[in-house]
User: Which sequence fits this backbone?
């Protein structure tokens, strides 16, 4: 059964279609990355990325309509109302909270996380950041494990994520003394069951008579 997104204003699109659309254009990708940092108007985003405001406004409207971003505030400016936007706020969900979600809610949550990962990755890729970073880490492959192995992978990822958060706190404390400028580094963790079981072993050709 196809899962529908539960956020309003999506023109009946599935969440899978919504996420694919959101990261399908460079301006939308750049907007998603900027809006993950804070609250901005279309004009402010246009100035940051060097694009015409009317073009950026069009893509912001499309992202809002798709449920990919949300309105943060509305302020009167002269004779009109200025809308400010932000990325969809995503709290940290515990295992118990995720387990209590409906399948729709889980799919939408996963989609919004994937949207931001893909937006950050594509923005850095386009900007050449992935060839400038001498310590870049890009690793991906499938692993065949049993039930215990799946649990151990999840536990290891949880430990790693906690340590990375500690490293950030330690860095901030050092920089408060050294005045060193920090670098903004994306760390994305993904661990999920594949669509395919793999590896697929091709069947041997039948012997000709």
Assistant:
């Amino acid at each position: 059964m196809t899962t529908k997104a539960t956020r309003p204003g999506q023109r009946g699109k599935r969440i899978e279609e919504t996420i694919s659309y959101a990261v399908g254009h460079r301006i939308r990708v750049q907007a998603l990355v900027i809006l993950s940092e804070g609250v901005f108007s279309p004009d402010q985003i246009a100035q940051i990325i060097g694009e015409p405001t009317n073009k950026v406004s069009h893509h912001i409207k499309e992202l809002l309509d798709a449920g990919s971003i949300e309105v943060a505030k509305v302020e009167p400016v002269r004779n009109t109302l200025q809308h400010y936007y932000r990325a969809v706020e995503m709290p940290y969900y515990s295992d118990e909270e995720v387990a209590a979600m409906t399948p729709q809610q889980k799919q939408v949550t996963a989609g919004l996380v994937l949207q931001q990962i893909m937006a950050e990755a594509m923005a850095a890729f386009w900007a050449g950041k992935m060839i400038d970073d001498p310590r870049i880490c890009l690793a991906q492959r499938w692993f065949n494990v049993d039930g215990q192995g799946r649990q151990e992978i999840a536990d290891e990822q949880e430990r790693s994520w906690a340590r990375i958060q500690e490293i950030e706190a330690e860095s901030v404390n050092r920089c408060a003394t050294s005045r060193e400028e920090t670098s903004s580094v994306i760390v994305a963790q993904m661990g999920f069951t594949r669509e395919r079981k793999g590896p697929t072993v091709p069947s041997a050709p039948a012997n000709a008579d």
Summary: Residues 1-9 have pLDDT under 50 and may be disordered. Residues 141-179 form one domain. Helices lie at 15-22, 26-35, 42-49, 53-66, 95-99, 103-126, 129-132, 147-178. The chain has eight helices and two strands.
